[in-house]
Amino acid sequence: MAERHNTIREGIYAGFIGATAIVIWFAIIDILAAHPFHTPDILGAGLLSVLGKPPMMPDTMLVRVISYTIFHYAAFAVVGIVIVSIVHQSARTPAILAGFLIAFVAFELGAFGLTSLLTSSALGGMAWYQIFIANLLAATGMFLFMWRRHPNLRRDLDRALTGTDDYQARQSDEPLRRPPERAP
Fold it and tell me: What SS3 state is found at 179?
C-alpha cells in the first residue's frame, strides 16, 4: 500500500525542523556571547513594534521572547506547508522544482540584502554570516526531511534540472506494455 502524505502535517513537521535549527543556532551564539535570549528578545521587540503591542501587555524580555517564538514557529509552519505542497506537485510536474530552486536562491539573496540594510539597527550585532548559517541550517534540515519522506524527489529534481520533464520521459519510467495479441 502506498504511503499517504498529509501536506499540512508534513509541512508543520518540516517547519518545526527548520525553526528549531535556527533557535538552536542562535541559542548557541547567544550563550557563547554570555547574553542568553538576546536574539529572540531583539527580534521580538522588532516584531511587537511592527505589529503593535496591546496596552495591557507588559514590555518584558519574557513577553518579547515568547511573542517572537510563537511568530517564528507559525511562520516556519507556513513555509513548511508551502514547500511540501511544491514537493507534492513535483511528483506530477517535476519542472516546478527548478522554479522553486530559483525562488530559494532569490530569497536567500533578499535575506542577505535585508541583513545588510539592518546593520545600523539593533540587529546590527547579528553578523550577516550568522543569519546566513541559520538559514542554511534550516533549509538543510527541511530538505533532508523532505528527501527522506519522498524517495522520488531525486528523480523529479534530476528531471527538472536536466529539462527532461516531458511526456516521453515519463513514459520511459513505466514498464513497456504491449497489447495482447489476438489469435487469428
Answer: coil
